[in-house]
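Q: My labmate handed me this sequence with no annotations at all. I'd like to see what the chain might look like in three dimensions before we decide whether it's worth expressing. Could you predict it?
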Amino acid sequence: MSDSDVPFYRTLGLPELRVHHPTNHFDFTRQGRRILVVGPMGSGKTGFAAQIWRDSRVVRAKDTGIPGCRTADGADLRNVFFVRSRLDSRRFSEYPADALAYRGGYEQLGTSIAEISSSFELEELVAAHPEVGTWIIDEASFYDERMAYVIQRLSSSRGLVFVLPTLILNFRNAVFNTTAQLLLEVTTDVFPLTAYCEHRSCLTDSSHTYRYYLVDGEECPALYFDPLIIVGGDRQVSDGREPNYATRCSRHHVLPGKDYTYLVLKPLGEAAAQGEGDALEEELADLKLRPDRSRLGISITEAYPGTTEREVLIRNALRVPCLAERALSFLFAEQNLISEVLLRRLVRRLQLDTDFLSRRLADNRRPVDFSQEELWTS
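A: Here is what I predict for the chain of 378 residues:
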């Protein structure tokens, strides 16, 4: 072995050690990359984006003639722009308007930050900033499916770099949505992040996102049919209508109600779509008024009758408020099984919480305005 082949740390006279690959600063000389930064909530995806911003402040202070930093049409990869989903705007009300906020702090980006709601708005934003070479699109899975191909085209044709910190797996441990699947297909690099399992007695490395609610101080896991997207989750809340999130290993990830969703709830929605809605209305009424006597409650208590920590925790899922509203949101916004007319009829007949339902449907891009319900009942 020549002197040039000796690892640097060995030249310092250190003994034989297991030296790991270093965590590198961002490379602003490699064009055309589409980088997925994936991991569960709390794994540091947005913090990773903030580090790219800090790195860009360092390299922009260097000589302007450094080779490789500019694309053929003049965009500078050292110019970084952060794009946030308009769905997320209410999460950051306590921060400055130009803040890239993450757990543990924030960076102020000045004019290099914007909110959008669609891939069309991204195209307009990129066209308005031809000097920007590196685009960070937070929560890219929240956008329409077209976003994946817009990113691919702009990256391939202009050499722009896109960094995409996003959830690929949802709280159900499934690929988040079609947009997430398409992003996986067009990406060039994947940076996976993990975190400790946040169960109080576990230090296992984890990549699962666990959603739960606090009801009277008790942990209550989200059911499988809980709305797919619920904006928020950056801080612990005690309102049983709003979720909390934790990173969990497979052993401590709890997700009740998957079998019920496909054995009972979805078939009831399919029957209602064919005009046979009495059974669905009865089940929704039970979920609202007496969840332990609903078909969901019976299936859970029969399957988990014991006193172990896990069984008690699973039964706690029946204590989460607005179970009927959550089930109805699943059938309407995700499964497209019931019409808006039927949705409104069930909401009216069962006197469901329209404020809660409106917010959940808006989060999932199926907004319904219940504020003038009398127009639908006349």
